[in-house]
Amino acid sequence: MLEFVVRVVGVIVAFLVAPLVVGQAEHKVMAHMQSRLGPMYAGGFHGWAQLVADGVKFVQKESVVPAAADRRIFEWAPFVAILPYMAALAAIPIAPGIVGADLDSGLFFVLAVMSVGVLGSLMAGWASGNKYSLLGGLRVAAQLMSYELPFVLSAASVAVAAGSLSLTGIANAWNPWWLLWQLPGLVVFFIAGLAELQRPPFDMPVADSEVIFGPYTEYTGLRFALFLLAEYAGIVILSALTAVLFLGGWSGPGPDSIGWIWTILKTAVVAFIVIWVRVSFPRMRADQLQKLAWQVLVPVALLQLAITGIGVVLT
Question: How far apart are CA 185 and CA 191, in angstroms?
Fold first, then answer.
């Protein structure tokens, strides 16, 4: 019982802290890359209070529910968007024995749970009573449907190579030469993950300068903050899953007792790349988005899966 409580508390604490750390890091990385002054000076030393200021701003804002909205669905949508990521985090191992729930089908569970988050966007768009918000929600769903296939296929390639659906088993079976063998799958997985999170350059459904945050147009205050927090939580899950599947998780120099440090470092590096991509690449058009998914990523993912299957059979 005590071990169960410790695991639950650990997952909750990690879920509350990690997205905030990623959010603070995004402020700093973007400030350095784009010479933004505000995030570097808020509160004094290196802008440490920027995230606090953002939190106070959201708390002070009034949470408005449009008159034409479906109130119950409108209020529940932010929680539906963020809670699946907490469930996914519970199944991702940090080191041998350090995992919220070591599931035999952990990869299948995490991929399935991550896809549930889109329901929050659909609920938000539908319940807002705003046709433009509904259009944004449908765009989110269409984007998820396009990129879910290459996302799952690239992850399946690693599962075939490891001979296991357990994330712990995949990490234990990882070899350094996978960095070359599974490199196409890594690229496809990362790009498809960005698209599923609606991160730039795949943020057409929620582009604030064009469609005013899509399905989240009518949200204010803490409800809107929960959608932003869900985005950062998604970055944590995508980065940690990439580290475990393709980068060996806790594999690295030194004893196994410090393996959790390697997992966190690899996750941080992937999260940095996610932020760097946002700053460096312009937003794609909708037709470019679909062409990239169906004409590039899906064929590459299928080819990677076929090569992996042949390699496993021959060896």
Answer: 10
